[in-house]
User: Fold this.
Amino acid sequence: MQAVVFAGVGEPLVCLERPDLEPREGQVIVELKAAALNRRDYFITQGLYPGIKTPVVLGSDGSGIVAQVGRGISESWLGREVIFFPGIDWGDNPSAQSRAFRVLGMPDDGTLATSVAVPAELLYAKPPHLSWQEAAALPLAGVTAYRAVFVQGMLRQGVSPKMGQAAGVHDLEPVPSAEQPPRAQHVLITGIGGGVATFALQFAVAVGAEVWVTSSSPRKIQHAVSLGAKGGFDYRNTGWQRELIKLSGPIDLIVDGAGGGGYAALIEAAAPGARIVSYGATAGRPPELDLFKVFWKQLHLVGSTLGSPRDFAAMLDHVNHHRIRPVVDQVFALDDAPTAIARMAHSPQFGKLVLNCGI
Ligand SMILES: NC(=O)c1ccc[n+]([C@@H]2O[C@H](COP(=O)([O-])OP(=O)(O)OC[C@H]3O[C@@H](n4cnc5c(N)ncnc54)[C@H](OP(=O)(O)O)[C@@H]3O)[C@@H](O)[C@H]2O)c1
Assistant:
């Protein structure tokens, strides 16, 4: 088999010939058709991720065909077209992962390879309407977006008659009458070029939310509008949130993967009783947090990481039901993985970067 091996921070990524994998008890070997990159892979190569262990094959996402099964696993899996949940040992608690939890692709060898060994319990059928590349783009970013939007963000299908209702807060808006149609839920998604952000947009649009976005790129805002966003703002422009509030009215849910200095604008943009869900901190820790606004506006500041196996199954149902197609920005050959990962340094992409592993 071939694998892209990360030997350590400062070392070049190299595509090497390696001995073929043998499944251990409870595992399957998937011959990969495609794999996808996540910012995690980039952070690891830069030494910006906790607990880095090398040498390792990076990559959390893949699509392919089950080629071998280990002891205890039904042979009926053989030949099936699959994707897999990239979280190992989530545990029994749907609210949070166990201490043993880890993401495929460090410390366990991942998907930037022609085959990967995964626990059989992580396997799911590949959505039939997706290409191999689209299917590979889905798992990690898709489940992160799904949990952030629907589980931690509590966005619901259709309209939101009362803000704050999901959290048990008393009505903050008048209950709509028959003459006054209920208003769609208003959602803000930051850094829309990101892989998770793009899925969050598609997932929220599919349930009828009015979605606004931020980006450093007018081109990406236009792309987001073509996917159903109402409009967008450049997060580098001071005061963009005031323009947003003028156009949109109150924002019920903010889904953010950036943090940093821009977090203060999110607190301002949030309506009373709103939720701000953080799934990442690409721009680092917020230098300050205006707690006065947080408690006076009755805000819910919520964290979200990956998702449980149950969230993953629900995400797949959502994708299959709405026939959502992941946005694939560019496809590279497997041995071009170093170029693809280097491309993430300045995030020119909209959506996902994918590698062909066996196509
Ligand atoms: N908790 C979890 O389980 C989990 C899972 C997945 C990802 N994450 C984290 O979430 C973050 C995004 O991951 P990803 O894979 O979606 O990354 P990605 O595809 O590499 O997205 C990067 C995007 O972040 C946006 N961005 C950068 N600086 C920003 C800022 N100051 N304000 C707003 N947006 C900014 C940019 O959007 P524009 O190009 O539009 O400007 C950029 O395109 C990363 O920090 C990642 O580690 C966490």
